[in-house]
Amino acid sequence: MAPLIDAHGRTVRYLRISVTDRCDLRCRYCMSEKMTFLPRSALLALEEIAIIAERFVARGVDKIRLSGGEPLVRRDIADLVDRLGRHVGAGLNELTLTTNGTRLADHAHRLAAAGVRRVNVSLDSLRPDRFRYITRHGDLSVVLNGIRAATEAGLRIKVNAVALKGLNEDELGDMLAWCVDQGHDLSLIETMPLGAIDEDRTDRFLPLTGVMAELGARFGLRRDALRTGGPARYWRIEGTETRLGLISPLTANFCDGCNRVRLTTEGKLYLCLGHDDQVDLKAALREGGVAGLDAAIDRGLTLKPARHDFHIGRGSAPAVSRHMSVTGG
Ligand code: SAM
Q1: Sheet-wide strand order for 278-280
Q2: Which of 105, 126, 144, 209 could connect to 149 by a Cys-Cys bridge, CB 3.0–4.6 Å?
Q3: pLDDT for res 252
Q4: How far apart are alpha carbons 65 and 17 in whole angstroms?
Q5: Which residues line ligand 1 (CB under 6 A)?
Q6: Burial profile 142-151: b = 16 or more Cβ within 10 angstroms, e = fewer
């Protein structure tokens, strides 16, 4: 099969799949308190997700990340991980997840047995009250328990924290120290203008340029050459196993090397987090089988834009109306 090369010469090797738009938390920067979710009848069946994912693997994708919504709230998620896990080492270099960690304790061993080696856990504060405020009702101890269970199961952890002005900006250094202590990696993320929420994102936007200056004064940071084809740049904390990633789509653009596409739980393939161009892989598969799917994937590739156009400013509308939970963060 022809490899997946877009109109800008970039090869797509990374598929992110949002397996559900539902989530058991309501992080303030992500979604509104009264979020409306898709009816279950709109979702791809597990078998359809697997067929689409396997088609991407056959066409050169070597990394798959399951996300959402919260991937571990989907009832048949373990079966999907088992199935996709069979491709690890045989087409796939990596199968991984991004999770809020609330159900990680229940799933950790099965994920590890299926071939998952590391997971990203979203955690924006290590202070219980603050964590509850940001997530609107989350229990920090449950997430920490999930991280512990995952570590015991042999999974490496990368903590993802959205840097939020006036909310967690004063504890990002402590979070990095905690990650060093626990042997985890940490990625800091700038809040992105995706979907309407109950507040103005400008109030919470914290440029990572300033955060880095503070972290550099407290930790020995050494630039790490790792490139994943994503928006992150990496540093090593001297003398430790911990890697610090900065995902700063607003203050530094890395779309030139973008190698990813995103499948929503409704079966739409989005070519960029920040654009509306998409093709309907569910319809293509149901109407045309695998040949229809291949044709739709090829059509999608021609639509992949050169870069996103994120902009945060008071009163400005989100770049796209889709929330991160729909496209899969
Ligand atoms: N429920 C899972 C979790 O919490 O990790 C997976 C989905 S969540 C949408 C994926 C990641 O997107 C999380 O790290 C979350 O913090 C981040 N995220 C959500 N909305 C965002 C936004 N508007 N800007 C930046 N990051 C966002």
Answers
A1: 221-224, 232-237, 243-247, 185-190, 156-163, 118-122, 94-99, 63-67, 14-18, 260-263, 268-270, 278-280
A2: 105
A3: 66
A4: 6
A5: 23, 29-30, 67-68, 70, 98-100, 122, 160, 162, 189, 191-192, 194, 324-325, 329
A6: ebbebbebbb
What pTM was computed for the model?
0.95
Average pLDDT over residues 57-85: 97
Query: What are the DSSP calls for 271-284, one per residue?
Result: S-TT---EEEHHHH
Using CA atoms, how far apart are residues 201 and 183, in angstroms rounded to an integer? 32
SS3 assignment, position 236: strand
Residue 198: both structure tokens together: 């109950």
Please give the Cα distance from 323 to 117 (Å, whole number).
Answer: 28
Higher pLDDT, 325 or 55: 55
Sequence letter at residue 302: T
- Name the DSSP class of 315: T
Pocket test for ligand 1, best of 21, 189, 327 (most atoms within 8 A of CB): 189
